[in-house]
């Protein structure tokens, strides 16, 4: 697979197995195997837009979405991930920026929140997010739960 990502497009139900394979490639470092059914249920009933990142041959290399809370002010980044072999190549930044851009284009939500682990905390800090809470082993043994927030400028 080349170094540059291909298209970023809306998720389709036919992408389900490929997205689960992306999830599986990140177990046990980034996700616990016990989270797989939750991710599958999420894909079956999306709370908001969900995107798929393809390589130049149309193969799914990553996925992630967002949902606007009922307050209309806060958006949650949901289940963002890249296939493990694609980490560190700029693909994650492209997908994260597409998700943030989608939130901005949708309008209304000024604050973005996500839950991540110690393994991706630095990645999100580089995108302007700040850690607010940390729960050791919150996602499972060895995977801390960190709530991060990106507030509007000013």
Question: Could you characterize what this model shows?
Answer:
By secondary structure, the protein is α+β, with helices and mostly antiparallel strands. The chain has a single domain, classed as Aminopeptidase (3-Layer(aba) Sandwich). The chain has 4 helices and 7 strands. It has a 7-stranded mixed sheet with strand order 1-2-3-4-5-7-6, sandwiched between helices. Strand 6 and strand 7 form a beta hairpin. Helix 1 runs antiparallel to helix 2. The radius of gyration is 15 Å and the shape is globular.
Summary tags:
154 residues, alpha+beta, Aminopeptidase, seven-stranded mixed beta sheet, 4 helices, 7 strands, 26% helix, globular
The fraction of residues in strands falls at: 25-35%
The number of distinct β-strands equals 7
CATH superfamily: Gcn5-related N-acetyltransferase (GNAT)
Q: How many structurally independent domains?
A: 1
Low-pLDDT stretches are none
């Amino acid at each position: 697979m080349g170094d540059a990502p291909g298209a970023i497009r809306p998720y389709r139900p036919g992408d389900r197995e490929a997205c689960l394979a992306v999830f599986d490639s990140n177990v046990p470092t980034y996700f616990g195997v016990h989270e797989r059914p939750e991710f599958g249920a999420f894909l079956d009933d999306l709370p908001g837009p969900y995107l798929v990142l393809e390589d130049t041959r149309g193969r799914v290399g990553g996925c992630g979405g967002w949902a606007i809370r009922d307050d209309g002010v806060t958006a949650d980044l949901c289940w963002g991930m890249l296939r493990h072999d694609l980490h560190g190549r700029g693909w994650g930044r492209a997908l994260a920026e597409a998700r943030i851009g989608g939130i901005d284009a949708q309008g209304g939500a000024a604050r973005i929140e996500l839950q991540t682990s110690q393994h991706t905390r630095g990645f999100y800090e580089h995108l302007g997010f700040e850690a607010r809470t940390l729960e050791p082993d919150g996602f499972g043994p060895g995977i801390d739960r960190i709530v991060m927030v990106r507030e509007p400028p000013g």
